[in-house]
Structure formats: structure tokens, C-alpha cells
Prior knowledge:
Order of helices and strands: EEHHEEHHHHHEHEHEE
Strand content: 5-15%
Structural class: alpha+beta
Number of domains: 2
Shape: rod-shaped
Helix content: 25-40%
Oligomer: single chain
Distance between the termini: 117 Å
Number of strands: 8
Strand order of the largest sheet: 1-2
Radius of gyration: 40 Å
Amino acid sequence: MASLVKVNCEYCGKERFKIAAQLKRYPRSFCSKECQSIGQLRRKLFTCVWCAVEFERPVSVIKKSKNGIFFCCQSHAAKYNNSLNPKRKRKPLLCIVCGVERKTGKRNIKCRKCHLKDAGLIIDRTLEEEFKLRGNRFRTATNIRQNARRAFDNSGRPKICVACGYKKHVEICHIMDVKDFPKNTKISVVNDVNNLVALCCNCHWEFDNGLLHLEGYDPSRTLLSAATTSL
């Protein structure tokens, strides 16, 4: 007579008897077909740490878990981890002029209100005062160019290259270069409309390199006849 061995169901844990000779060939034991169909998928009941709801997951998740806790969804896992390790609060970005919190990024050190106010005051400063305020010549040149474009736009003059008549893209150029003005000259004089001219990229390069001359340039004259080119 075959000897029987008492074993436990792998899924529900219920005790049952199994022939000892079959243990080597069929090491897994189930008490019913229902337990066998579920147990062969190697799934197990777990309890969510956050909401205490029971759920089924493959047994393989036990090996993947580092701390032995399980969650029913990613949302509950995120809430649990955030409660243990709260995020650092971002330091407020303050305007260097008025001290009010600004919404702009790290590159802008002033709020929008102070930035617009400063844009209106730049014409009252001299080149030397602007250089001391900005700290370097690159920021100074950038602000002077921005103010020059704003002054040209407000003048209502057409954005057409005075040398070739190109209309799609023009650059605002100083007829008398900024570096040729004395340091005590106000920016309103440097960016005067009579000292500004619209040129395309190619004509702007020619003008900077001495190939294009604008002596006696008059904005009221025909644009194409106002410039002379020397080759």
C-alpha cells in the first residue's frame, strides 16, 4: 500500500494527503482545481500600506521589494514616500530693486514692473553710469541695442534696408558708433532717431567694415538713394 504524506495547499494552506512517491514528480500541492488555477499563476494576497486594501500580485514582487511593503497603485506609493521624505520648498526669487517676489526665471534679476521702469530710465543715464550699473560691457551693449530698437519702433519709420530695400529682416544700426561717443554722453543722444538706420544683415556688415557709406543720410529722402557703396 502506498504511503501517504500530509501536505498543505500552496494557495489557501489547507491540509491534505498526497502519495509520497508523487512528491518528487509533482512537488507542488493544491487542495482543489480552483486553488491550482490561482496558485499556478503564483499570485498572493497583499495589503496596501496606505489604504489597507487587499489586492493580488505575483509572488515575484516579494523579491523586488526592498523594504517589504506593498501598495495597490503607484499613486498610493507616491503619497507614502512623499509623507516620509517631503520635498524641499523652493526659495522665493526676489527683485533686487523692490524686494518683491518675482515669477520670472533665474536670468531675470528684476520683477516685470521694475524692468519696465528701468527701461524708461535708461535714456536719462550716461554711458558711464550704465556701465557701472550693469557691471560689464556685454550687458551694457545689450541694453543700449534694445533701447535703440525700441526708439526706432516708436519713431514710426519703415523697417526697410536703406541700401538695398530688403524688408523681411532688418537690423537697427548706429550711424555713429557707440564707442565713438564720450563716456558722459546720455543714452538718449546715442539712441537718437537721427543716429539710427535700418540695414539688412549684409549691408550692416558692409557698413561696419567700411564698404558702405551713409554720409549725409536723410530719412526723408528716397531710401535707395541715401547710401553709396564703395568696392
